[in-house]
């Protein structure tokens, strides 16, 4: 936790909390169980809905025989395409804020089956056990037709998606002459890199408790999501409800990693049943069912890279084929970053999709970049050996000082410092370059490294601030905290902006009655909501100053807002800090019992447009391999991240620790294995879908590299949720090669492939 703020950001002077490792303000609620998740709201008189999934992959439902289970006492209703289309789907084509191009899947709308485990019915009963039992008895007759779920068979069917989603940028056109430069270069490397689908698997399963309020169509919808407003808009449009009727609450989210960006089908199911039955209904998905609605796509990537004798990159070609569903074109940025990260004049980037019979893929931590960086960083590692350069030296030689994709300077880029500080901490200079040349007793030791890049984004967001006469400040916004620390950084920024102690500040999130903010995602929430909080607190400060100036013999009369500071619960004149008014006295004198403000903060497009805005990292990894057993352990990781100003080095470090653990997971364990005969992921549980346990995780060192940036936003925040994940999987694969001399280009780097 070495981060110090050399140059305090513009938060109207206070820096009591900004940049400090403040404890999570929601920590006590989480560890005591006071923080409630969607399935934990015990509303009275609850019915339980259990989702029934299709065992076939493509075809249609011929008949659903609900009668036998409806005769079981306590079974309330069975919803399916036979009775639902007239009840829902007011706007059949409604797309949520995150939807890719195409036609969103409409649960229980048609008899058609488009993917395995498609939700086909909802069985509602008075208890969960009964609903689950009845669901197991539901007779459904299907007619299966042929399916294709294997991307390998679609290699020739790739197509270029259109720009159907504003957040997706197609790869830039080629530059220079990549083909010719490749042929001419003395050191060439070409290979294919692959990973299968991966599933997000947050701790909290998807669940919705729809509380029927006994008043027309009014519902409280407790949902597991990364964006209550996105869910609200979806429900309003599908069911024709007003904002007041569809009140969505999601104060705590037990992880999302992208899976909660889009409304998932359980919220549709719960709301449908609650409205129809005029009763509160809960629908929780099982862990198995967590594999039924989206994943990081299976992707095939070809890298052709070449360097000259000085180690300078001559050609970089990165081409990919990703799976998508038959009904939507899921796009993510996989290759674009490859044209930004390194200095190379001859670049060709290509991104294609192919349709197979799966559910639409979805965002999963650092979507696109995670896949792309794995392939790129492994390929460059391979090329560095061919060119006879140390992998770190090779990256420094090809360091990009400008963004060659967009032909723009970087708003800031401290990647070089990431390399230097990370390497120093790791002891990279003691690396012996030859594979299989380092040992620890019987174990082979491998050192590998890699780099990552992610966007620094800010989105339009609103917040509200409310100050009581006792001096308690509440700041609120509708977006979610998915475990990232949003509550905490909001409270820090608010406390500093108004010079209040953190204990007097409360942050509230995840409720659609609050000012609108985007889904929590893209590592953009700290910047977006942070700016909204700062803006609204300043607005409240201006109101306070005006009231203070109206007080009898006010020492602040005639002083502009720009010339006062908010410190220690007081408003002070900058020129003479003995001129003060206590904030509590202001409210007392005004006779108001509270003071409120609401504000929206938007990115300063004009200021940002000339720049390329990114966060970076450099990862150094040590692995030890038992050659006889083929087992590999990641014994040491140093991850140096430059992500602008760090609001809270403690929560930021936790983000990076989580990233590293997930990187270990991606590199060594995760893979959703499809049995293509059935078209189904066979390891759809946490017994067989492997993720790390404590014994898999050893030393992790996080360096938060100091980086000032006044372009990205006035607070200088770039976001750290995703960048720390990048490069980790590649660095591990590279270390595995250095240890063993064996390249594994198909993740995960598992024992069978290493042996
Ligand atoms: Mo993140 S994959 O934008 O939740």
Tags for this entry?
755 residues; alpha+beta; Aldehyde Oxidoreductase, domain 4; seven-stranded mixed beta sheet; five-stranded mixed beta sheet; 32 strands; 23% helix; disordered N terminus; binds dioxothiomolybdenum(VI) ion
Q: What's the topology here?
A:
Layout: H1 27-32, E1 46-53, E2 59-65, H2 67-70, E3 75-80, E4 101-102, E5 112-113, E6 119-125, H3 128-137, E7 139-144, H4 178-184, E8 187-195, E9 207-212, E10 219-223, H5 228-239, E11 246-249, H6 265-277, E12 280-284, E13 299-307, E14 313-324, E15 328-329, E16 347-355, H7 369-386, H8 391-397, E17 402-403, E18 408-409, H9 415-426, E19 438-440, E20 443-455, E21 461-468, E22 473-477, H10 486-498, E23 505-509, H11 525-550, E24 564-567, E25 570-573, E26 580-582, H12 583-590, E27 594-601, H13 605-608, E28 614-626, E29 631-642, H14 649-668, E30 674-675, E31 680-681, E32 699-704, H15 728-740, H16 751-754
Parallel strand pairs: 1-12, 10-11, 14-16, 22-23, 29-32
Antiparallel strand pairs: 1-6, 2-5, 2-7, 3-6, 4-15, 8-13, 9-10, 9-12, 13-14, 17-18, 19-20, 20-28, 21-22, 21-27, 24-25, 25-26, 28-29, 30-31
The protein binds dioxothiomolybdenum(VI) ion (MOS).
Residues 226, 256-258, 261, 363-365, 367, 521-522 line the site of dioxothiomolybdenum(VI) ion (MOS).
Question: Could you walk me through the main structural features you see in this protein, from its secondary elements to its overall organization?
Answer:
This protein is an alpha+beta fold and 755 residues long. It has a domain at 27-35 and 458-602: 2-Layer Sandwich (Aldehyde Oxidoreductase, domain 4). Helices cover 23% and strands 25% of the residues. It contains 16 helices and 32 strands. The strands form nine sheets. Strands 3-6-1-12-9-10-11 form a seven-stranded mixed β-sheet. A five-stranded mixed β-sheet has the order 19-20-28-29-32, sandwiched between helices. A four-stranded mixed β-sheet has the order 8-13-14-16, with helices on both faces. Helix 10 (486-498) packs parallel to helix 11 (525-550) and helix 14 (649-668) crosses helix 15 (728-740). It is globular. 57% of the residues are buried. The structure holds dioxothiomolybdenum(VI) ion. Dioxothiomolybdenum(VI) ion is lined by residues 226, 256-258, 261, 363-365, 367, 521-522.
């Amino acid at each position: 936790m070495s981060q110090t703020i050399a140059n305090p950001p513009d938060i109207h002077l206070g820096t009591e909390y900004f940049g400090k490792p403040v404890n999570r303000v929601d920590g006590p609620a989480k560890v005591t169980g006071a923080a409630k998740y969607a399935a934990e709201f015990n509303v009275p008189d609850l019915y339980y809905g259990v989702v029934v999934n299709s065992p076939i992959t493509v075809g249609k439902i011929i008949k659903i025989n609900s009668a036998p289970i409806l005769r079981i006492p306590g079974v309330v209703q069975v919803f399916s395409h036979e009775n639902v289309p007239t009840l829902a789907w007011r706007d059949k084509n409604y797309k949520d804020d995150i939807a890719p191009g195409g036609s969103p899947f409409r649960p229980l709308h048609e008899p058609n089956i488009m993917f395995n485990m498609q939700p086909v019915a909802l069985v509602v009963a008075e208890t969960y056990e009964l609903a689950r039992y009845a669901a197991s008895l539901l007779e459904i007759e299907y007619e299966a037709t042929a399916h294709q779920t294997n991307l390998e068979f679609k290699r020739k069917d790739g197509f270029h998606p259109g720009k159907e989603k504003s957040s997706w940028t197609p790869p830039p056109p080629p530059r220079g002459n990549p083909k010719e430069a490749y042929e001419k270069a003395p050191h060439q490397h070409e290979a294919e890199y692959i990973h299968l689908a991966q599933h997000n698997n947050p701790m909290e399963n998807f669940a919705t408790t729809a509380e029927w309020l006994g008043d027309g169509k009014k519902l409280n919808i407790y949902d597991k999501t990364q964006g209550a407003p996105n869910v609200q808009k979806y429900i309003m449009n599908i069911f024709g409800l007003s904002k007041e009727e569809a009140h969505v609450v999601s104060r705590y989210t037990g992880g999302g990693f992208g899976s909660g960006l889009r409304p998932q089908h359980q919220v549709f199911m719960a709301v449908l049943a609650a409205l129809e039955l005029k009763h509160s209904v809960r629908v929780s998905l099982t862990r198995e069912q967590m594999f039924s609605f989206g994943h990081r796509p299976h992707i095939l990537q070809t890298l052709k890279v070449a360097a000259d004798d000085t180690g300078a990159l001559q050609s970089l070609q990165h081409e990919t084929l990703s799976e998508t569903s038959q009904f939507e074109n899921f796009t993510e940025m996989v290759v674009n970053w490859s044209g930004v990260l390194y200095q190379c004049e001859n670049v060709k980037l290509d991104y294609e999709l192919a349709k197979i019979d799966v559910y639409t893929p979805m965002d999963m931590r650092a979507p696109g970049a995670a896949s792309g960086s794995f392939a790129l960083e492994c390929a460059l590692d391979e090329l560095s050996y061919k060119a006879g350069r140390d992998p770190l030296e090779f990256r420094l030689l090809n360091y990009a000082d400008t963004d060659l994709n967009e032909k723009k300077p970087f708003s800031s880029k401290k990647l070089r410092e990431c390399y230097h500080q990370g390497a120093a901490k790791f002891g990279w200079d003691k690396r012996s370059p030859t594979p299989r040349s380092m040992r620890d007793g019987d174990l082979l030791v491998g050192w590998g490294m890699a780099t990552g890049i992610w966007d620094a984004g800010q989105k339009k967001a609103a917040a509200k601030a409310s100050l009581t006469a006792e001096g308690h400040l509440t700041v609120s916004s509708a977006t979610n905290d998915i475990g990232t620390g949003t509550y905490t950084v909001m409270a820090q920024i608010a406390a500093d902006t108004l010079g209040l102690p953190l204990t007097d500040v409360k942050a509230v999130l995840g409720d659609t009655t609050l000012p609108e903010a985007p889904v929590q995602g893209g590592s953009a929430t700290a910047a977006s909501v942070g700016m909204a909080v700062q803006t609204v607190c300043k607005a409240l400060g201006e109101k306070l100053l005006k009231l203070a100036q109206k007080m009898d013999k006010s020492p602040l009369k005639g002083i502009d807002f720009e010339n006062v500071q908010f410190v220690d619960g007081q408003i002070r004149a900058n020129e003479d800090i003995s001129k003060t008014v206590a904030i509590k006295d202001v409210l007392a004198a005004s006779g108001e019992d509270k003071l409120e403000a609401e504000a929206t903060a938007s990115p300063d497009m004009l200021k940002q447009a000339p720049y390329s805005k990114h966060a970076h990292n450099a990862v150094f990894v040590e692995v030890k391999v038992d050659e006889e057993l083929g087992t590999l352990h990641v014994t040491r990781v140093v991850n140096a991240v430059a992500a602008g100003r760090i609001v809270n080095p403690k929560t930021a470090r936790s983000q990076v620790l989580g990233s590293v653990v997930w990187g270990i997971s991606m590199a060594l364990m995760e893979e959703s294995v499809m049995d293509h005969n059935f078209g189904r992921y066979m390891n759809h549980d946490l017994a067989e879908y492997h993720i790390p346990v404590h014994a898999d995780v050893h030393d992790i060192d996080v360096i938060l590299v100091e980086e000032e940036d006044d372009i990205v936003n006035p607070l200088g925040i770039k976001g750290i949720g995703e960048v720390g994940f990048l490069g980790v999987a590649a660095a591990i694969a590279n270390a595995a090669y250095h240890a063993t001399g064996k390249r594994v280009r198909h993740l995960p780097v598992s024992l069978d492939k290493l042996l």
